[in-house]
C-alpha cells in the first residue's frame, strides 16, 4: 500500500505519485515542482484565504491573456523567471552578444522591410538612425542575417496595445543584412514605458510598492544560418529606470549611448531631418 498523506511527509508522498512518469525529464520537473511548492506552502504556512486568493489571481491572469496580451508572460517577467530561464539557456561565455527577455509584445510577425526604411509609421518622436553589423565570433560578416526589431512609440506603447491609434506594424521591422552583414533603418529614439499594469500583475506590483516601468529599449532578434540566434534588447543610456527595470532585463553590455549627429548632407541622404540621433547595434552570434 502507498504511504498516506501527512504534513511531515507531504512532498515525498506526492512526489512518489509521479514516480511512474515515463518521460524522465517530465518526472524530474514535476517532482522538483512538488518539492519546492510544498516547501513554500510550509515556509509561509499558507492560509485558506491566501490559497483562494492565489487561485483567483491565477484565474484572472488567464482571463486577462489573449492573442495580443500575455499576462502570464508578464507575471513570469516581474518575478524574474523569464530572465532566469533566458540567462540559463544562453550562457554565452562573454563572446557573443548577451541575450535578454523576449517580452510579451512580440506577438505578431514583423513586416519585412528594406534597408533604410522608416519604421516609425506614426511619425512621432525623435528621429533616429539605427545601424549595425551582424558578425560571427571571429568578426566574420554574416551576409543575409535577419534582424527583427520592435519598440514602443514616443508615447510608450507598442502598436498591438493601441490598435485604434497606431498603424499596424508601427515600429516593427524584419530586415535582411547586406553582403557585409550590415543593416540600417530609420526610427525614433525608444521611450521608457510601463508594462501593462491594469491587470493582476499590475495589482501585484502596486501591492508590493514596485513601479511597472522598463527603461527605454529596442528589441532585437538576430539570426543567421549556422549560428545561434540571439534575442536581446539595446537600452538607451540616458533612460530612467536602467537600474530598476520591472522585468530585470538590463545587462550592462546592452546599454548604448544614442548621440545626436548634426550633418545636413548625411541627414538628407538618409531621409532624416537634421539633426538626428544614432543608435548602433552591433551583434555577434556564436556558431551553432
Ligand atoms: Fe519592450
Descriptive account of the structure:
It comes from Geodermatophilus arenarius. InterPro entries: 1_2-HQD/HQD, Catechol_dOase_N, Intradiol_dOase_C, Intradiol_dOase_core, Intradiol_RC_Dioxygenase. Its cofactor is Fe(3+). Belongs to the intradiol ring-cleavage dioxygenase family. α1 packs antiparallel against α2. The mean pLDDT is 94. Strands 1, 4, 10, 11 and 12 form a five-stranded mixed β-sheet that branches. A five-stranded mixed β-sheet has the order 3-2-7-8-9, with no helix packed on it. A hairpin with a 6-residue loop joins β7 and β8. It is built from seven helices and twelve strands. The chain folds into two domains: 39 residues; 209 residues, Protocatechuate 3,4-Dioxygenase, subunit A (Sandwich), CATH 2.60.130. It is elongated and about 80 Å long. The chain has 288 residues and is α/β, with parallel strands linked by helices. The site of fe (ii) ion has 4 residues, from β7.
